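Risk register update: the risk of archive-format incompatibility is retired. Evidence:
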Amino acid sequence: MTEVLAGLSSRAIASGLGVLLLVACSTGGSTQQSASSTDVTQWVAWGGQELTAYRDVLKPFESKTGIKVHVTTNRESTTAIANGIEAGTELPDIAPGPTDPVQLKSWVGKGALKPLESFLDMKAYTDNTYPALTTPPGGASDDPYIGIIGGKHYLEMIKTQVKGLFWYNKKVFTGQAPKTFDDLLAINPSQYGAQKLFCAGFESGGDSGWPASDQLHNIIMRQSGDQVYTDWINGKKKWTSPEIKLGYQTFLKEVSAANVYGGPNTALSTNFGKAGDPLFKSPAGCLFLEQATFIANFFTQNTPGLKAGTDFDFFGHPSVNSQYDGNVNGFYDNVAMYNSTPAAKQLMQYLATKDAQQIWANDGGTLGAIKTLNYNDPIYKRAAEVAGSAKNLLVTAGDFMPSDMRKAYWQSLLNVTRTPSSLDSQLAHLDQVQTAAYSTS
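Archived output:
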């Protein structure tokens, strides 16, 4: 069993906000002297509101220490760092760690990543952070999904998000949250003056299909369990297996012409950040949108004046198979150290504190990794309760599959949404991709 929270980077969120691929966004340049005690170079995946919030986090640190943090938004940081490691060129002091377990082990083996044990009070860190982000299940010494190799931690968890939430307009849907997935599908949207049961938006440029994969992940982990889900991530469960096929079939009920706003083609062509807009039209286009906690940012951006908890709310993913109700899907943001400088150590230590992460929580739009933060936003307060009460916090499957597998997987969801009758052929093709992708990963 892999009891971990997911590692999807913020690239998809930030790309929806229309930020440039590479943006320098702090004072000064990104060059610094070796082992600096006054400057830190950092790459992040954040843009827009996320980046503004991070700059708020940095202000007290820079003011107190006199250290300048030179931040660069680089959504291709994993590729750039891999190239730098191979070429022996300069790396940023701090950047996200890789999500690929094989790549993580390789970088650790080459000494590119520095263990948190070399600069953090690990007891305080693990005591304060959600356990699923810091502690391998069953006493294992390795858990590459959360950055633990040989008993040492290489990814410092700083933010989290929860997925599989069903969002609704409180002025439209006034009923009780359904207890089971079948109860959800049985709701008649016309009873509440809405056109369809669900909205969906699967377009995300070159990453189109990932929002659909999130829906499938939440079905499989609750329908067939965490062991099947983890085996699937690791290439040990065939796509044509009964469990994975059943997951796809259940997903197709959500995006059927009868249930999805505008029909399947609208779901395929709508950007994920705009998918919830019909919730707030009059008459409402749909009753529910399934998405992660971050989608609240898009609601208020796209429809100014909306207020969380007053105009919109969510309920957790309904039960699909009651024995697996404790499985929750999510993802995390992390920082990793590539250059062990005095200034970089100080920044890493600061980011692990409640004071730093509370600033993120106060700015809104995310959960911190520390489990005792206070949330003024009612949405995130409740989402923190979901994360804290979960039995298993499970990774986003596609993000931990080999890149060829992930690409084919996301494409298959677009294909079956467009042509449901192609399901068997799509799954057979994915079996072929799996055989090749995992043999070379």
